[in-house]
Fold this protein.
Amino acid sequence: MEKGWLQKQLGIIIGVVVCVCVFALLHYDSVLDTEKVDVDKRLYHVGVILDSSIMDRGWNQAHYEGFLAATRELGVQIHYKDYISDDQVEQAGEELIAEGCREIFGTSFGYGEGMKALADKHPDIYFFHGSGVERKENMSNYFGRMYQARYLSGVVAGLCTKTNHVGYVAAIPIVEVIRGINAFTLGVRSVNPEAVVHVRWSGSWVDSDKEKEVANRLLDEFPIDLITYHQNSDVISFEADKRGVRSVGYHYDNVGEHNGSMVTAAVWNWKKLYIKLIKDCIDGRFHSRQYYLGMDDQVVDIAPVFDGVLNEEQKQVVQSARQRLAEGNWDVFYGPVYDQSGTRRIREGETVSDNVLLYDMNWLVQGTEGNISDGNE
């Protein structure tokens, strides 16, 4: 009988303990030592540094929409610092860390020094440098193989031009921009070997007045009937609209905003990558590395070509090129490739390494008109 009584008492005790635990879980806030914790303070905080508006119809808006998708998918809270110049990155990063951010993204190439300084000072915070080229133990860099989408948009441009003169307003003479010019030109000339791509420089990612000036200078100097650009927004496309000139957009799908004058655009889709990078850090799976993702990873693509721009045969040419890239069996910089002077840079049957693509492409391909050195003036 004594053994049965003990078992009964033990059962009662266990039941009470279980009830207490369940009550504590259901009313977690009320058993904290401090006052009730606000729901927002239990969220995972992510900081994002941008160089202009999150609604710029281009580079920054593409990033913003990727982070917005991550917010919806993961329930994280995103803190934005926009209109941040290169020399303000450290201050912006410190403010984000003070706001509780455990993971910080810098989305401009020029943020490199500031991001490295922050990573050194805060080894317990994760940093990601978009379009960057350097890494640290707690900092990765990431970018997409946008040259693949550039090539495809060049194919569309080559099929569209009637004058065989295409304009290209470039931003800053760094490898990223040069790589894009070359890929676009190779795409143009793959379907139109007589076409020439005229390159001029604005000297900035964001300078509307300068962009308009350079675009108009190109249109005045050459019989250009299609123009593209490498700046943050679609200012140049609106300027081309006024002069009855078609355009190829960049960063973001603004085709519907231009009444058919923008024929397509090379676009980013950051959603999947941002969800992965944020979740990896939450789950403790951060590894310092370089992410360089292409069409097969669905990070880059072209916007659907505007209806009526291409005939069925031309659409098939674009689709075939897209398919080759998406399958990963072929890439843009397969030789033979020649530079402006006619010097062979890539031999037939060969390609260039990612190291060359990211750090060492300092020449323009055959078919371009303009000089890299002009971008340094």
Confidence is low (pLDDT under 50) at residues 16-41. Residues 2-26 form the longest helix (25 residues). The first strand starts at residue 45 and ends at 49. DSSP finds eleven helices and 15 strands in the chain.
